[in-house]
Amino acid sequence: MLAYSAPRQDMQFVLKDFLDSEQHYANLSGCETVSLELLDAILDNAAKFAEEVVAPTFRTGDEQGCTFDNGRVTTPDGFAEAYRQWGEGGWQSLTIPAEEGGQGLPSSIGMFVNEMVGAANWAWSMYSGLSGAPVSCLLNGGTEELKQRFLPKLLSGEWGGTMCLTEAHCGSDVGLLRTKATDNGDGTWTVSGTKIFISGGEQDLTDNIIHAILARVEGAPEGTKGISLFIVPKIWVNEDGSLGDSNNVTCGSIEHKMGLNGSATCVMNYDGARGFMLGEENEGLKVMFKLMNFARIGTGLQGLTMCERSYQGAVAYAKERLQMRAISGPKNPDGPADPIIVHPDVRRMLMTQRAISEGSRAFLYWLSQQIDLSKHGSAEEAEQANALLEFLTPIAKGFCTETAQEVTYLGMQVFGGHGYIAEHGMEQVARDNRISTVYEGTTGIQALDLIGRKVMGSGGKLLQNFTKVIHLFCQEQQDNAEMAAFIPRLQELNAEWGTLTQQVGEGAMKNPDIIGSASVDYLMYSGYVTFAYIWARMALVAQQKLAAGEGDAAFYQAKVTTAKFYFQRLLPRTRALAESMVADPESIMALLEESF
Amino acid sequence: MLAYSAPRQDMQFVLKDFLDSEQHYANLSGCETVSLELLDAILDNAAKFAEEVVAPTFRTGDEQGCTFDNGRVTTPDGFAEAYRQWGEGGWQSLTIPAEEGGQGLPSSIGMFVNEMVGAANWAWSMYSGLSGAPVSCLLNGGTEELKQRFLPKLLSGEWGGTMCLTEAHCGSDVGLLRTKATDNGDGTWTVSGTKIFISGGEQDLTDNIIHAILARVEGAPEGTKGISLFIVPKIWVNEDGSLGDSNNVTCGSIEHKMGLNGSATCVMNYDGARGFMLGEENEGLKVMFKLMNFARIGTGLQGLTMCERSYQGAVAYAKERLQMRAISGPKNPDGPADPIIVHPDVRRMLMTQRAISEGSRAFLYWLSQQIDLSKHGSAEEAEQANALLEFLTPIAKGFCTETAQEVTYLGMQVFGGHGYIAEHGMEQVARDNRISTVYEGTTGIQALDLIGRKVMGSGGKLLQNFTKVIHLFCQEQQDNAEMAAFIPRLQELNAEWGTLTQQVGEGAMKNPDIIGSASVDYLMYSGYVTFAYIWARMALVAQQKLAAGEGDAAFYQAKVTTAKFYFQRLLPRTRALAESMVADPESIMALLEESF
Q: From CA A183, how far away is CA A256, in angstroms rounded?
């Protein structure tokens, strides 16, 4: 049985040493009361909740899965009870502004809480995650009346929620959607259509489910310019917030998936269901915009949770499994063989897992501070935070999930044949993770967002904004001999990033297909350089702690070693990406369709 | 539903154009009667069998899986009937020498037959594959009497077989095994112990199951020097080949696995089961040696089958799924959107799948010709074939399965969210494939075999033997302007391969951990260079056909384009591997065990 133990020490390192949360919150308008003591208390409570309440549902949730019977969905044992405790504990409203009925904590607090409950069981945490979708839509596009009608029970966890975009014929190309909405003339709308892949579209955790639905008003312009956003309850909600009749919202079936079996993925039929429009007509995507960005970072977080889970399993096994002797001589001479953690290739796998996991954590927590700044910082801070977030969001989504693919693969590999057996949980982690490079926009979509919309779309400015951050850091540290293993290489890659971008941009003037053909290589390249910056900064902090003789020296030493491992063993991949991304797209585009 | 259609055109290209099978068989002692007509007939019949009899069991086999009840295993619907037809069709004895009761066809014929039935349903083909294990052991180590007793019904498919190595505490480290054998003094032995992960250990396809078991005779030396090989029937076999009493062989349970659900993975208890020793006492591994090498190439073949299956699914979907417009203008102006095959990134994924699939096929079929030569060639040919096989077997196993991991990943990615849904079969291909990098020796074990035993163990000779083959090819083609996209790069990498090997070897004198830390990078590097050689040769053949105006020009043109794609987009990965493999192992080895 794969255990989960919240990685408290590394989380504390990232929050306190690396990100100096004390200073961060002290400077954050309206969040000055967030002290390190409060942070510790939240971290402890969330860790306990994740370990003791959520983690026990991990294997059983996969084994039992959700069941569907005549429109009703039954979630696995323990899901409903855990959800009840989640709501009662106030976790669902943690980072919602106090004036909207939440607890008013900054987003960065939500990040580490979500890491722990997600790592404990991502399938379970999908329900709370998606319940945040109508909340976000209401906050961005709801009237005061609608907020009062729906928010309280969404925030208490008594009601759940969904986000409904996908239809059978339209996934990435949301502009093709056909679900219809007609104005009833009384402030309500009638929504009709079928949505697929709706996580938590039906479940037995909450008394009601509030669906946030993208639909098209009759006569609306084609494509993405004619999409509006609606909020449609499963059971009608009266003005006073009490429940009315059922509202023609039915679940047609649930999908049989590769993983995340505890999360019900529903086909939802809206057959003349009543609801309310959020925001302006035909501007539904604008209301959803922030939600989508956060959901993308949240999916990057899934990558981290799966890495952490897989790493924990692999390390435990590698310390316990005895096979063969270390080449440098027996390390467990009294046993029949040495634990496999002595073998260089096993360590290479564990170090890869570690470098990606810890790198993802530091990167995503840093981004969560940028989200804080975008909301509570000065105008200048908010502007810079937004520029960083715009640029780094597709990297967080694309890179942290693609690398999680590798990390969960390696976790199984460390287990050998036992990794393929369900009871150990390692294959479940890989299956649960597998969707992360797909939903909330595939890696290909993230890559086009990055290189097309963000980089080329800003004339390179959003890239330069970040490479300047890296450049300043390198300049600061260039005379620090302790950082010689990191700074010159980071500086070189940071410059190459710009050169490659220019090359792709110039190529695109002659052949627009070069953008698409370079895009995923570009995304991955960007991820490796971004992580190099993050790892160099972590190495610096760890070295400073070691020099000052503060804290757990072995921990800081391991941090520096992992940074070196990252630079020596993973960062070289930029060489391959740099070469392939600028290759002539002809060999990609030349084949006749019938030759495939 | 994921269809399977045997890739006849590419198979014909590899067998006839690339490998000149006509000439190959004509020169092969004892195989001169194998004509192209016979080849075509076998290919056609096997393709029909795979498509019509085996492929229909693919999805149902996964959905139903095997069930276990009180020692009995029930395989999914259709498995037994397909197995009966397989035996009756003579497929099980195809490549067994005529003098041993087989059909006497060369091994290379078995390779393409196995590709098709394996691609149709690998889980099903495990039963026939493993039934070949006791056959191979008997041929290598059985007396005439034992062969007569066991072979006829193993070859007719009336009996099945297994290969039993793994025990709960010993996988990669086979020397730790504890299963005991005692001499009954009457030519029989009694075997007692428990084996795990035994594919087909119990099933309902055949009347009897013949287990090939590694065990230790009391008082045998520790480790691999004290291992003997036994053949133990589930039901006793009398001297005349008739069945006797049951033989204390029981299945304790079957595993719940990530994939290959139609293949029963059994815990087998041998509780004083009677059997016979094959080969000499304590030399069981020697008898099994050839089998293990062929099983490794056979697992490489699994990689190819999964690539092909995933590619076929992804191409069909990419031609049919309409999402967004081509950046160069609508390609399907009358439809709501263009088929996604117009998008460069989708093509990049399909071309990657294609380059790996076709590269694996050509590589493995070429190896199968080497197997033919090792058995039927002149002394000189056999020596060279054996040298190539020794060196290339871990590459075939390691590289063709690791790349299949990526290819089956990309197949799901092309499908977007639908790839995660069971009914489309794409996630099944990924799950079924996942074990291929583990069983028959993990990638890490293959990598150590390659760099340690084969390269360093031969003082570099086995590597030089192959780089010389590449070198001669490059010399021949260096003035061929048509080959300018391939030869200089191949030449450069071929030389670098030697340099890197030397660097690792010299490093290992000072620090033996460099071998293990470099090993997997070295294996993957070797695979990419090997495939570059294969692709360059295929490009040459295709260009010659184009120049001669022979055959299907679009097919040959696609071959050249795919070769260019491989060189431009995949081969650059050698840059990353070359850099990381020679990095100081310190960052891999430095962490204290307790710091993990």
A: 36
CATH number at A8-282 = 2.40.110.20
User: What phi and psi values does residue A279 have, to the nearest 5 degrees?
Assistant: 75, -165
Does residue B448 belong to the interface with chain A, where contact is any CB pair within 8 Å? yes
Q: Describe the crossing of helices B573-581 and B513-548 by its angle, rounded to 10 degrees.
A: 160
Residue B504 to residue B463: CA distance in whole angstroms: 14
Angle at B575 between CA B569 and CA B578, to 5 degrees: 140
Backbone torsion region of residue A34, taken as left when φ is above 0, otherwise alpha when ψ lies between -120 and 50, otherwise beta: beta
Alpha helices, H only, A27-175: 36-48, 57-64, 79-88, 107-120, 122-141, 144-156
Average pLDDT, chain B: 97
Spatial distance between the Cα atoms of A411 and A425, rounded to a whole number of angstroms: 10
A288: Cβ–Cβ under 8 A, 6 or more apart, which residues? A137, A140, A163, A212, A214, A229
Rounded to the nearest 5°, which phi and psi values hold at A521?
Answer: -60, -40
Report the pLDDT value the prediction gives residue B74, as an integer from 0 to 100. Answer: 98
Contact A173 B337 (CB under 8 A): yes
With an 8 Å Cβ cutoff, are A427 and B258 in contact? yes
Instruction: State the pLDDT at residue A373.
Output: 98
- Comparing CB atoms, the residue among A256, A327, A347 nearest residue B422 is A256
Place of tokens 């942290």: A400
Q: B113, B94 in Cβ contact below 8 A?
A: yes
H or E segment to which residue B592 belongs:
none
Q: Which CATH class is domain B288-446?
A: mainly alpha
Q: Looking at the DSSP assignment, which residues form a beta bridge with residue B474?
A: none
Work out the burial of residue A436: count CB atoms within 10 Å of its CB; fewer than 13 is exposed, 13-18 middle, 19 or more buried: buried
Per the CB < 8 A criterion, the answer to whether B518 and B588 are in contact is: no
Determine the distance from the C-alpha atom of residue B223 to the mean position of all C-alpha atoms in its chain, rounded to a whole number: 27
Of the candidates A349, A412, A442, which has its C-beta nearest B416's C-beta?
A442
What fold, for A288-441? Butyryl-CoA Dehydrogenase, subunit A; domain 3 (1.20.140)
Segments of chain A scoring below 70 in pLDDT: 1
pLDDT in tens, B298-314: 999 999 999 999 999 99
What's the pLDDT score for residue A585? 97
The pLDDT assigned to A290 comes to 81
Which ipTM value was assigned to this complex?
0.97
For residue B443, give both structure tokens: 């990638």
From the number of C-beta atoms within 10 Å of its C-beta (0-12, 13-18, 19+), residue A252 rates as middle
- In this complex, the residue of A346, A422, A438 whose CB is nearest that of residue B413 is A438
Amino acid, res. B551: G
Catalytic residue among A32, A440, A476, A586: A440
> Residue A104: how many CB atoms within 10 A of its CB?
17
Structure confidence at residue B290 (pLDDT): 81
Tokens of B242: 């008739």
Please indicate if any CB of chain A lies within 8 Å of the CB of B405: yes
Nearest to B198 by CA among B165, B223, B220, B171: B165
- Is B419 in Cβ contact with A593 (below 8 Å)? no
Task: Identify the helix (H) or strand (E) that includes residue B280.
Answer: none
Q: Which residue of B has its CA nearest to A522?
A: B345
Burial of A481 (0-12, 13-18, 19+ CB in 10 A): exposed
Considering chain B, what percentage of its residues have pLDDT values greater than 70? 100
Q: What is the DSSP string of A198-266?
A: EETSS-SSSSEEEEEEEEEETTPPSGGGGBEEEEEESEEE-TTS-EEEE-SEEEEEE--BSS-TTS-EE
Q: What is the mean pLDDT of residues B361-380?
A: 97
Q: What angle do CA B390, B396, B402 make, to 5 degrees?
A: 140
Interface of B with A in 382-401 (CB under 8 A): none
- Residue appearing with tokens 């570009």: A522
Q: Which residue of A has its CA nearest to B175?
A: A324
Q: With beta carbons under 8 A apart, name residues in chain A contacting B559.
A: none
